[in-house]
Amino acid sequence: MFSPPSRAIGAIAAAGLAALLAHGSSHAADTYRIAYIDPLSGPFSAVGELMLNHIQFAVEDINAQGGVLGGTELELLKFDSKLSAQESQSALQAAIDQGARAIVTGGSGSSVVTALVQSANRWNQRNPGREVLVLNHSSIDPELTGKTCSFWHFQTEANTAMKMKALAGTIADLPEIRKIYLLNQDYAHGRQWAAYGRQMVGQARPDIQFTGEIFHAIGQVKDFAPYVAGLRQAGADAVITGNWGPDLSLLLKAAGDSGLQLRYFNHSAGAMPGTVTTMSQIRKGDLTWVAEWHPGQADQPQVDALAQRYRQRMGKEFLSPRMDLTPRLLAAAIDKAGQTDSVAVARALEGLRYDSIIGPVEMRAQDHQLLLPQVVNTIAPVDGQKVTVAWEGTDYGFRTDAVFTGAELAQPSDCQMRRP
């Protein structure tokens, strides 16, 4: 993991942590501390490690290019959220105590991220001059940039409504999809994924029948066979599921074992380790998901170049431009602000336009929702034409189905931002 330079630790110790936190100017310290808070143990630890690797690579890359403000290095602290709101809030306080000025999170689920943002709001209100920012790379609850929006929170991933709009636009051109079942984890995101699916797909295809809907406890189901039996009984030919991590792979395996041929529509499946391997093993059904990029996507030379550097340094495959982008947006805002004071950095992030490896992106000032492209794609066998790159040592890869700009997917927001 990323180790802070000893000279940075010495400088911070000499200056005193209280002095570092009390002053916004980066020129008073050698480092700017970022805390990573996401699951690093338990059933979703593989997802948390994947996210950490991307954040760590970006931080190291920024430092290799001179850091921020002409020489201030970024220092990455890591904390295990344990997929728990209480643990995450404890980690937030520990991060603040260790001098963190920004939190990077998102893989713990929307309920946990919401609790983190609320805790940051309270801390910032009580501790002017020592505020902390929350950068959310994966929790896609529209409420985070809607009714519960916060000046201190920035979402660097397309939200649930944006992703479902892209999928609905794709389903509109798939006449073979006639009966859809909604199967989701029983928490805020799972219920939103189901609700937006019913609403947006229903609008795009009024002829589609929704044949059933069920929610299950997150991370607790070991055998999805009874749920698959329900899919078969309902006559579904497609499933809208927001499941992720083991809850998705176990569902796919159970359906494959039963011989059920289904089309799955998901938000981030291919960016989770092992999903392609699972599809290649069961060889039943099609898994369609939506992200800012997918491995093997054509005409993406900047992503290809970064992915190669990532592979050489980290020894793993690059999967997520938006995670890599999150620290880079923060660094760009610090440079734009000319200081590390959190209020100034937040104002610099508002409306920030950035030429990323996936194209221009914009942090919408109204609600702090990043507008970035989305690519609908399907995990499918390599055919040398539409699927050219094999993944995870299998003969499966990704097929591009449709591409949307951030502006095309942007949704109205009812955010009423309270700014300091």
TrEMBL record:
<dbReference type="InterPro" id="IPR051010">
    <property type="entry name" value="BCAA_transport"/>
</dbReference>
<feature type="domain" description="Leucine-binding protein">
    <location>
        <begin position="31"/>
        <end position="370"/>
    </location>
</feature>
<dbReference type="InterPro" id="IPR000709">
    <property type="entry name" value="Leu_Ile_Val-bd"/>
</dbReference>
<keyword id="KW-0029">Amino-acid transport</keyword>
<dbReference type="InterPro" id="IPR028082">
    <property type="entry name" value="Peripla_BP_I"/>
</dbReference>
<dbReference type="InterPro" id="IPR028081">
    <property type="entry name" value="Leu-bd"/>
</dbReference>
<protein>
    <submittedName>
        <fullName>Branched-chain amino acid ABC transporter substrate-binding protein</fullName>
    </submittedName>
</protein>
<feature type="signal peptide">
    <location>
        <begin position="1"/>
        <end position="28"/>
    </location>
</feature>
<dbReference type="GO" id="GO:0006865">
    <property type="term" value="P:amino acid transport"/>
</dbReference>
<keyword id="KW-0732">Signal</keyword>
<dbReference type="Pfam" id="PF13458">
    <property type="entry name" value="Peripla_BP_6"/>
</dbReference>
<keyword id="KW-0813">Transport</keyword>
<comment type="similarity">
    <text>Belongs to the leucine-binding protein family.</text>
</comment>
